[in-house]
Specification:
The protein is α/β, with parallel strands linked by helices and 228 residues long. It has two domains: 134 residues, Rossmann fold (3-Layer(aba) Sandwich); 78 residues, Transcription Termination Factor Rho, Rna-binding Domain, Chain A, Domain 1 (Orthogonal Bundle). It is built from eight helices and six strands. A six-stranded parallel β-sheet has the order 3-2-1-4-5-6, with helices on both faces. The radius of gyration is 18 Å and the shape is globular. Its EC number is 3.1.3.77. Keywords: Amino-acid biosynthesis, Hydrolase, Magnesium, Metal-binding, Methionine biosynthesis.
Length: 228
């Protein structure tokens, strides 16, 4: 079997519960987004992402309130928009730093990440959330600061997670042959795309999800079950 040299992991449903993102982070951003944009809207970075959101919607010029309402609608839809994810990340940073919440990780994840690093593997994150949001997630996790475990992060600026080319770009960025990279996710379409790019795959099916009799990818309940 080909030696694994790098592991790229998704977050929601893989290292961490979907409910934390859906029930804690999304409502937090939804409630605070209007005030955040009103108070930070003149900052260049915020202006950039507001402009990108409007451009994504095909809006040439729009009042700030219209863009706010657009972003609120996208939060409700869980829109995979890079602009939205960037702005949410800025809002979440304030929440993490204020101690309003800690990011959830499954009980075995911290120990397994440490063990993989000790074995010489390089660990990376690929999530639809922005890279700054990913870094905050692991820095302020309920298992402590896990950010030193990771050598790099990828988000949708690399490309959509269900497209083969995104994983080809990640392999190129890592300087590894795809066969030496293991991608972990709970979304089978992402795993399909990664496998098409030549990566090895691991399908996380956390309880109460059922593991099919003939899964399309190697399937695991927890990180402790993963066979390298």
């Amino acid at each position: 079997m080909t030696v694994i040299r790098a592991i790229v992991t998704d977050i929601e449903g893989t290292t961490s519960s979907i409910s934390f993102v859906k029930d804690v982070l999304f409502p937090y951003a939804y409630k605070r987004l209007p005030a955040f944009i009103e108070t930070h809207g003149d900052k260049p970075e915020v202006q950039h992402w507001l402009h990108e959101a409007a451009k994504e919607e095909g809006i040439v010029e729009a009042p700030r309130q219209d863009v706010i309402e657009l972003l609120l609608r996208w939060i409700k839809q869980d829109r995979k928009s890079t602009a939205l994810k960037a702005l949410q990340g800025m809002i979440w940073q304030e929440g993490y730093e204020a101690g309003d919440y800690q990011a959830h990780v499954y009980p075995e994840v911290s120990a397994r990440l440490h063990a993989w690093r000790a074995d010489g593997l390089h660990l990376y994150v690929y999530s639809s959330g922005s890279v700054p949001a990913q870094k905050l997630f692991f820095r302020y996790s309920d298992a402590g600061d896990l950010s030193p475990m990771f050598s790099g992060y990828f988000d949708t600026e690399t490309g959509p997670k269900r497209e083969r080319h995104s994983y080809e770009l990640i392999a190129e960025a890592l300087g590894e042959q795809p066969a030496h990279i293991l991608f972990l996710s709970d979304i089978v379409e992402e795993l399909d795309a990664a496998r098409e790019a030549g990566l090895r795959t691991g399908w996380l099916l956390r309880e109460p999800l059922e593991i099919p009799e003939a899964p399309r990818h190697p399937a695991y309940r927890t990180f402790d079950d993963i066979v390298l």
